[in-house]
Design a protein that fits this description.
- This protein is mainly alpha-helical.
- It is elongated.
């Protein structure tokens, strides 16, 4: 099965970073706190390292479709993490200042989940800057004055 030169593979279009962020948040919400607290380093290792490696494969490919999808998935990643942080801060504020003792449903983000999400967002930012560098390199190649 040969690939046509104009069509990027699905591997390059798949949102590996967004998938890892989603899995970290889903595992944080669904798993028991004591088990997740003991095994967070392994979960983060299994989710962060492959996301960084698989997202790094996209750097050399600078087709417009891959770059556009990368920007869209990065924006969705920031939106998802922002909503989780907002829910956690809102719950903390309600528990601390407004109605202490009243059970309010919110996302509880322990420090290790915040650290994992921050690392995944930094990977997204690094990928965006490397993508911009690739775009600049392409434009410089097309410039007749260079």
């Amino acid at each position: 099965m040969a690939l046509t030169p104009g069509k990027p593979s699905n591997f390059l279009l798949f949102p590996w970073g967004l998938l890892s962020i989603s899995l970290v948040l889903i595992l944080n919400l669904t798993l028991d706190d004591t088990w997740f607290n003991k095994n967070w380093s392994w979960i983060a290792l299994v989710l962060i390292i492959p996301a960084a490696i698989l997202e790094n494969f996209k750097v050399g490919y600078s087709t417009m479709r891959i770059m556009f999808m990368k920007v869209v998935y990065s924006l969705l990643s920031f939106l998802l993490v922002g909503m989780a942080f907002g829910s956690a801060i809102n719950g903390w504020h309600i528990d601390t200042f407004q109605k202490p003792g009243v059970a309010v449903k919110y996302i509880h983000l322990p420090w290790y989940v915040v650290l994992a999400l921050a690392i995944l967002l930094l990977i997204q930012v690094a990928q965006l800057f490397s993508m911009l560098k690739a775009v600049k390199r392409e434009f410089m190649q097309m410039d007749p004055d260079q």
